[in-house]
């Protein structure tokens, strides 16, 4: 094979490998999109914890709370990564089924009952620690 042929073949292999890497990475980028949430709005949900799933890549919370029409419905809420939240003081036991809670979310754009977790206040009035950016450690000695 000539030098030109080897160069073309090498270029073709590199282009193909790059395309494969981009296609393989696409689901990760799609997964981390927050486009389904309306980050310009917040909704306070006063309700009861129905489910709390402490799983990677994001924890999920299901809260039974009244919707805008006053009827109780289950709200599916996505939170951060347990790996990050534990550094802010969260634990697998932060919520238990049946706990009364007020959770603030960015609601779903399409109006379905759900959203992205912003903050929570437990029944005793204590706030659940908020996640710190970039997984920074929680302050010590408090």
What is the topological layout?
Elements: H1 3-31, E1 43-53, E2 60-66, E3 72-78, H2 82-85, E4 100-107, E5 114-122
Parallel strand pairs: 3-5
Antiparallel strand pairs: 1-2, 1-4, 2-3, 4-5
List key phrases describing it.
alpha+beta, 142 residues, 2 domains, 2 helices, single chain, OB fold (Dihydrolipoamide Acetyltransferase, E2P)
**Alpha-beta content class:** alpha+beta
Number of helices: 2
β-strand percent reads 25-35%
Largest sheet: 5 strands, mixed, barrel
* Name of the CATH first level of the largest domain: Mainly Beta
For the record, the count of structural domains works out to 2
The counted number of beta strands is: 5
User: For the residues shown, what is the average pLDDT?
Assistant: 80
Describe the structure.
This protein is an alpha+beta fold. It folds into two domains: 1-33; 43-135, OB fold (Dihydrolipoamide Acetyltransferase, E2P) (Beta Barrel). Helix content is 23%, strand content 30%. The protein is built from two helices and five strands; from the N terminus they run H-E-E-E-H-E-E. The protein has helices spanning 3-31, 82-85, and strands at 43-53, 60-66, 72-78, 100-107, 114-122. The chain has a five-stranded mixed barrel. A hairpin with a 6-residue loop joins strand 1 and strand 2 (60-66). It is elongated. The N and C termini lie far apart (71 Å).
């Amino acid at each position: 094979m000539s030098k030109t042929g080897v160069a073309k073949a090498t270029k073709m292999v590199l282009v193909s490998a790059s395309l494969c890497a981009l296609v393989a990475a696409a689901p990760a980028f799609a997964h981390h999109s927050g486009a389904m949430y309306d980050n310009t709005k917040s909704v306070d949900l006063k309700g009861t914890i129905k489910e709390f799933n402490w799983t990677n890549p994001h924890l999920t919370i299901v809260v039974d709370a009244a919707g805008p029409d006053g009827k109780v419905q289950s709200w599916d809420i996505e939170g951060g990564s347990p790996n990050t939240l534990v550094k802010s003081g969260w634990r697998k036991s932060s919520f238990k089924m049946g706990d009364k809670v007020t959770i603030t979310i960015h609601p779903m754009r399409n109006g379905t009952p759900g959203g992205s977790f912003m903050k929570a206040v437990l029944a005793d009035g204590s706030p659940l620690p908020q996640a710190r950016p970039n997984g920074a450690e929680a302050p010590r000695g408090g």
